[in-house]
Design a protein that fits this description.
Number of helices: 7
Shape: globular
Largest sheet: 5 strands, mixed, barrel
Strand content: 25-35%
Structural class: alpha/beta
Number of strands: 12
Strand order of the largest sheet: 7-11-10-8-12
Order of helices and strands: EEEHEEEHEEEEHEHEHHH
CATH class: Alpha Beta
CATH topology: Rossmann fold
Distance between the termini: 12 Å
Length: 254
Amino acid sequence: MTADATGASDTAHCDIGIVCALRLELAPFLEQCEKVKQYTGGAFTFRGGHFHGLRIAVVESGAGQTRARRATLALLDAHTPRWLLSAGLSGALRPELKIGDIVVADSIVGPAGDAVALDLSMRADPERGWHVGRIAMADHIVRTAAEKQALAAQTGALAVDMESLTVAQVAQQSRTRFMAIRAISDDATTDLPPEVLAILGPTGSVRAGAVAGALWKRLSSAKDMWQMREQATRAAERLASFLAGIVDQLPVEP
């Protein structure tokens, strides 16, 4: 939080702005924040609070590039953060990455081959499940192990998501410092259940009707979706722990 020349507090400004696709990705981190408030701005849900004296603003974008761009611009316009973070869950593209491992991007590549390089001095610590390397952004859910293997060979990336490159490009255009941090929620050797394509609506929200339909068509999908939920929850908790350490170290001076 900052103050203007008259000493009045600038309650709109935040130190760190975070873009996530789904609420569950940042829920464990927000539980560590104080005075968390929620409001709706346009098509997006914002949540904000204080973490160790820093003002945090989180926007829930929904899945995909278009919504990620719009949400990031809305976050910049509303809260003028000194840092932008793209944070959330991702799929592993390498077999050595396990559920709950963390990937910090040193570059991000998109489906059209456009890429952003990030100036990052962080070192990897694989024994602790911390990895530094390229993240690929896809324009669809990369569901099968075969797709993941092909994308890894094509891009050299460690993990895949659907938003990070877009957020990075907006950060570059606005000259805002940026990091992409992802926690692995599905490994490279396992297919996601096919129902995930129908369950996630166009905004990235869970469609209750699609869940019911999936259970009706394939009763065993209940076990698959429960496991997927457990993995996502575990990964989000690991992400919260990692973010807590990162946020404390980010320089927020102008």
